User: Fold these one by one.
Assistant:
Number 1:
Amino acid sequence: MAELALRTPTLDKDRVLQWLQKYGVYAGVAVLLVVNIAITPHFLSAENFRTQAVQVAPVIIVALGMALVIGTEGVDLSVGAVMALSASVVALYLGYGLLPALLVVALFAAGVGLANGALVAFIGVQPIVATLALMVGGRGLALVLLPQLEDLRNPTLASLGSGDVLGFPYLILVAAVLALIVAFVVRRTTFGRQLLAIGDSRPAAQLAGLPVRRVLIIVYVVSALLAAVAGVLATARLQASDPTSLGNLMELSAITAVVVGGTPLTGGRVNIAGTVAGAVLIQLLTATLIKHDLPPSWTQIAQAVVIVAAVYAARGRGKR
Amino acid sequence: MTTTHTDAPMTPAPTGPVEKTEQAGPGRADRISALLQQHGALAVLVIVSLVASFSFDTFATGDNITNMATSSAFLAIVALGMTFVIITGGIDLSVGSLFALGGVLAAWGSRHGTLVALLLPLAVCGLIGVVNGLLVARSRLAPFIVTLAAMLGARGLMLALTDEGAETYLVAKGSFLAELGQGTTLGLGNPVWITLGLFVAGAVVLRRTRFGQHVYAVGGNEDAAALMGAPVARTKILVYTLSGLLAGLAGALNAAWLASGVTILGNGMELEAISAVVIGGTLLTGGLGYVSGSLVGVLLLKVIQNVINQIGSLDSSYQQVVSGAFLAVVVIAQTWLGRRRQLM
């Protein structure tokens, strides 16, 4: 959107907003931690931290892929559907063993990502619509494959969901490793640079001879694969495949985490540490409200306020 | 990297704002593509309906048709508001939540008289629309994220009003509101007539009024519209307000039809509405669109749903697969047609 300098905000306000956009999410996490330690009983326990972290891990994993997509000035609404699809596929192919089942999951997810990427990169469909089609169709396909909840009895899969190393659950470790990898890719690789350049200006990237289409397709495939990882881990934790409700509204949580974390929707910049912190912030906010017996409806309203505040702080600072 | 799929290898930004004024060129191909863009959905609707009525005895019966019409009415009203928003190049993801909120407010308000039952949802949903519009137009935030927040907030508000969804308010039998939703006139349900009236009004507003022209201008090229003196911000605020109002009204009518404010409604309705609008030929990039197309889009979605229900052996989740695939096909066709027209 062109910036018509209708109003020039005072320098102070500008600075405050800049600071908020960069560090607001960490400040928010810190404030919530302090407040909770002060007023929430039993907050400061290893058990509680473990619960919170296990709950937030799938959101972080999905949000990592979403951050990459948003960095290209896109958005991926199909992530929740991909989670559901991977739950269905795992349930269907678990009979052949866990590894073959995971391979088939990866194939399905890559297929969805390829479809998204091809629609966006080759046909030039807007990301919202392209991924909307896959969101509707993907959830439908998940339900066609597995119409109802199915309990899974596979010890390996169960240990994936509930096992730990030195007290750290696998879910958290996987999320942490993936976050490090994605952060490295964004900061230190050619691919990361190309991705940001495309988000900054796709025509310019094209004119500069960057492999725009290839990068876009890879980004959507990666987003779908990460969503599949989250779907498998969530299924493993539930020890049941639930294509009806698994991943519902996950796209919103992921987008919120990314945006709250300081990645502008206008593309060209990606903040991975902020994204992780954004997911944690929302998890803490929800947990705080729930632990003080405030109804879930308040959580949604609070989340809405946080999103608008985050985007407001980021206003006009995305692309220059 | 391959360039096999583009006809213009170095055309920058195929996703960017496309020139969409209706300067129909003289070429025959151009006219055909324009025709397809505008009436493609109608053709498909006719074909699907014909095939369905030959294949299923129960399809073309009076009962089935009136049922389809009534169940289409609510989505159609929401899609009408969405059409305006999308023509300005925006999007409104909050309509599903506003639909549910409107229904709950109408049912709750029906205890205090019909006037409250109708005005309360309109006032609250309209107000949320105004806030959406202000944030989009004045604060220049992305429509997608603003209305996403409104979607969460409105659903939260609805849940807070209904004891976290546990309480369902009922619409009293025999009240004017119930009559409005359940009664029939000339064989068709009242909501159908209201919907038709709204669409006629919407088409007139869009085609024949200054506001309508501003809606197209803002969607076509916002900066140019501003330079021409069109009130860009006001137009945007108005379209989001309109979308909120219509979503609230649709919810209220739906509650009247169901005789209760059901709290689990409206999930995913924003996606259905967007699909209907896009299928109807309105471009998501803004600047080009038809109110009538959105009505056709809604009918097409409902007919497909009905057909899938008629094939008893098919699970209803196939409907989602078909809808998703259909939406993909339509946007591919649209983008292709749009690019053709741009090149002419």
Number 2:
Amino acid sequence: MKIDLTDTTASKINKALVQGRRAIGTPAVGMVLTLVIVTDEENAYDALRAANDASREHPSRTLVVIKRVSRSPRNRTSSRLDAEVRVGAEAGTGETVVLRLYGEVVDHAQSVVLPLLLPDAPVVAWWPVNAPLDPAKDPLGALAQRRVTDTYAAETPVEELNARAKAYTPGDTDLSWTRITPWRSMLAAALDQVSCEVKAVEVEGEEFNPSCELLAMWLADRLDVPVKRSLSSGPGLTAVRMDTSCGSIALGRSDGALATLSIEGQPDRAVALKRRETAELIAEELRRLDPDDTYASVLRYGVDRLTAAAAPAEPPAGETADEGTAAAGASEGAAAQAPAKKAATKAPAKRAAAK
Amino acid sequence: MTSVHGANPLRDAADRRLPRIAGPSGLVIFGVTGDLSRKKLMPAVYDLANRGLLPPGFSLVGFARREWQDEDFTKVVHDAVKEHARTPFREEVWQQLIQGMRFVQGTFDDDDAFERLRGTIEELDKAQGTGGNFAFYLSVPPKSFPVVIQQLKKHGLADQTEGSWRRAVIEKPFGHDLRSAEELNAIVHEVFAPDQVFRIDHYLGKETVQNILALRFANQMFEPIWNRSFVDHVQITMAEDIGIGGRAGYYDGIGAARDVIQNHLLQLMALTAMEEPASFDADALAAEKTKVLGAVRLPRDLGRGTVFAQYTAGWQGGEKAVGYLQEEGIDPASKTDTYAAIKLGIDNRRWAGVPFYLRTGKRLGRRVTEIAVVFQRAPHSPFDTTATEELGQNAVVIRVQPDEGVTVRFGSKVPGTSMEIRDVSMDFAYGESFTESSPEAYERLILDVLLGDSNLFPRTEEVELSWKILDPIEEHWDGHGRPAQYPAGTWGPVEADEMLERDGRSWRRP
């Protein structure tokens, strides 16, 4: 059921929610969290669809905050809030409110969202695109226990990672980090099978994909060895090669679905490692709402290295690195992280809603 | 080559995104052509793989009499997975699994077949890197247990070499009385060490059952009243709406009490009544469950404290159902119970004087399993009796299946000018607050077997204690007349209602 409200307020929306629930005959509320999606009109549809899919695992109240662009001075001074309340089949297993903000109220979105949060339940904020530089300080981010950003959608992902590291507050997390959980778990499982020491690592993946950097930083952080990042044409991550005291271990995936695990002295094995949909990523994010310390440590590692090591040359693009050169190439510069550019470059400012 | 979690630098307890993945291992299923295997085990293996919880190179070996090739076996698994798996079918996951699938053809007394099985396992160790770690799932009739176990021993399949493990997974029934259970345990333990034997009670793999412990011990508001000072009595019900179906051969002579009360209901009772374990590990849990099962006291007069019954012809949910004695393959003079209700006491400080009523049956009103903790009435009510006429006793009900959740029942004022108090219920539904697709019990249990985590598996002592509780009751029933009768589709015989009436109580309608 769908209720449209034009030029409305939070209290009218609350009333509509109760009315909607009554109308479909389910007055009980079993929702476990409030998910606030902050987005523009362009990305709202996809984000909401992913959230609705994820709500099958985590019934939630989803608030979609759409900041509309004002194109004239008159529009900017007047202010209006429109809402679309969806309950029942149209809203996954929870409730959805799509909020469209016009004019001045765009800068005061938190005043609309605050009264609509579920009592006593955790709040998660998600920016599918255009995440603020410091999510915890953002007025909407400040309402949330957990703040989900996505550096993959950024113009210059690596610089954005730097910014994330600087602004990190417990509760921050990034979908680029979520994307590599299957890789991390498979690599950990691979090391379960052998007991030898890792000497050097190479992470290969497409350019402008911060997941590769995050995976490289995680490996460097945990293994304390030089990690080399090299480029390929994708899709996504394509390979991780580890040079260990008992030969090489490689996990390669060229088609974005089925990977091959090769451990020296053992037969090659196929492992499923499919790139996941946004809905699955969000569902994973919502599973744990406590601060992700591993992510924090990985981010922190990157920053340390990038400022300490005077940025070694960018790995030669297109070079199909084989196991032999991986260790040699990386050993000179402690840990050669990614295309490590000037660390201090200002990360891209929030591409403002109004162009 | 054990999983070296401690030494693996990529493992970190704080990294909670990384799932518990089983170490290198394989699963051998005996009786792989059976229903359980197709409907539960194969889909569970696939679902585990799909969730990324199986190690690379995980191998699945089927053992059965059928003349199958590896390809035929893969096809059967494929169909079973397509039909019964909980998670969507994905080609790449299937490609990963298929590499480690083997089929060994043979009967249980065929030495050659077991040699071939050993060869297959050795080949898998080389080809798939399973590291000699194999679990043997015995999905076979009880009478075949001893042969299979002995064959495993004879062909060296149960021998654990340096750093690898071999485990046995067995299904109920764990014997049919104390003596046979002890014999069975002796046979199994002669070959497998007690901590490598996993007895599957799939109820314990259910989320709701594990939640009993969370509800009781992670919260402050329930435990203070979880004792004789506040609890009036406890009812544990497991009802099925189906008859015995095609299981006549197995069911006749076993009956509801042996089939359900001995394992599922007594385990549920132990979890409901036990003291807080020192920690959430297998030893501590088993210690508390054993203590409470050891403290169970049978009613002094077994004739008045227990009821056994058979269903007669009737209508079940709009369908005509035949009586138990008319079912195909059942001896018309059979005394087997299809319904059993017993009243137990627990002799300890917490529960002295609080009766636990356990009942189970086939062809009852609907399929439901629940634990109802019914509280005493308020010692004093400031409202006059007309106001509270319709107020029942407060209750906490743990709904195990279906519609998993917890209900709290209490009195509330009916809106209006007069003071009238009536029962209302407050509901927590799993499906509503958490995932729509919580893992199947078998998924959890198979994973636990591969991880060697025995939290959710009853131990030898628990099984033997349960038989000690049930044996005198079965003996009494054997010597005392015929079972009572109840029409199919009702909530059991009047004798069971009378049993509670004598105590001034009544059964809940679940």
Number 3:
Amino acid sequence: MQALYAQLLVGLINGSFYALLSLGLAVIFGMLNIINFAHGALYMMGAFVAYFLLNLGGINYWWALLIAPVVVGVFGMILERTMLQWLAGLDHLYGLLLTFGIALIVQGVFQNYFGSSGLPYSIPDQLKGGVNLGFMFLPVYRGWVVIFSLVVCLATWFLIEKTQLGAYLRAATENPTLVRAFGINVPRMITLTYGLGVGLAALAGVLSAPINQVRPLMGADLIIVVFAVVVIGGMGSIMGSIITGFALGVIEGLTKYFYPEASNTVVFVLMVVVLLVKPTGLTGRAA
Amino acid sequence: MAEAKLAEKPIAATGAEVLTVKDLQAWYGESHILHGINFNVKAGEVVTLLGRNGAGKTTTLKSIMGVIGKRSGSIRFDNKEIIRATSDKIARLGIAFCPEERGIFSSLDVRENLLLPPVVRPGGLPLDQIFTLFPNLKERLTSQGTKLSGGEQQMLAIARILRTGARFLMLDEPTEGLAPVIIQQIGHTIARLKSQGFTILLVEQNFRFASTVADRYYIVEHGKVIDGFANSELSANMDKLHTYLGV
């Protein structure tokens, strides 16, 4: 039983990263119509910014949670202004190829300087140790990651579904021309949305640094699974991508316990089934 | 020729010119839609563009709003040249647009649709006045925008631009596909807005409806304004109008 709970926890943690990343992808896809393949590389940059802050500036984890998303978000907004905006109105394929190229360049540069092995990033003092829950031992940091991710996901959901700013965003996803004709600077909103989505990826990168170490290819490994999560959940819905992210993490964890051989493929098997049965995804709207 | 005839037909002014369109040309991609549109709208007027399907009426409104990518000529609003301005800047000058397809957002509920257009200047209608004009909307605030009936969607599309403080409204075929009783309600609304000092540029296929609200008409054909007359000259121009509109 201990092993089952342990795998469930691992599943929830992976699910947290899936949810944070697929949420950003869904928001970006809605506004920019771009399948952001650079998402994994930006997640990795988030972890590296945390690493640099600590080792070069002595700036701790808590500040990194705030600073890394902003730094990477600004980097993302520069990408959007200088490159992605010119692809507006073109087929998805162009955005996908461009962001894939950006991901390869960014990862290549980091690999050149830091190799492929992981750099250590230690758990902040306040989150060290663990709690015995009776049925299992819970490392505090892992519990923190799950709860904090959930809070960030729900806050993002609230921002998009329940506020005036979110109403602009949803409306501009449907009909950017009309929203602009009401007097809203839609191009600026698109840039900020890309910054927000990318910032969420960077935040996930910081959260992951103490668990998975900081590696140039950490995003490349993760992003393939996240895309499968997005395909299963469907691109259309914010809550859908949050729930699907956590659920698939848990399903992966359970598979690791009951049938470990399939744990790396179960998400992709589900993706194939969903594509065959409901190509728009479980919560997606038809394009 | 047609333009010359226009020029020598002075039309009783109700106020200063707020909109002056000169030699407006516009393109959708490679296709040249507007070939030199000339007309004006004075403060407090209801001006209607009439013409057959595909004549360029909607494109004219969209060009004024700045949502047509390629346009040339001159559009002056409140003495400012806006031919090169982006649509968000144009909206902030006080022009509001109600598109033909209504543009109600399905991912927003009625309240969110109503509150979506930002207030661009003071003097917009307060919500309680909007609900007096359109009582149906008040009862359906939490419904999904596109779950409303066609008539209610049209009312919502008009209502949401009244809040913004824009005093120049462009309504593109507000009566299209609606039941007579609702058309009547929209007619009353336009009359009421006019009495409150709004200036309205209307595009209509429904000539009978237009005649109940308009001060002046312009006839658009093949991307040009070919004629214009005041509502008082309507009966004298009926024969011509039938030829123009083919009705």
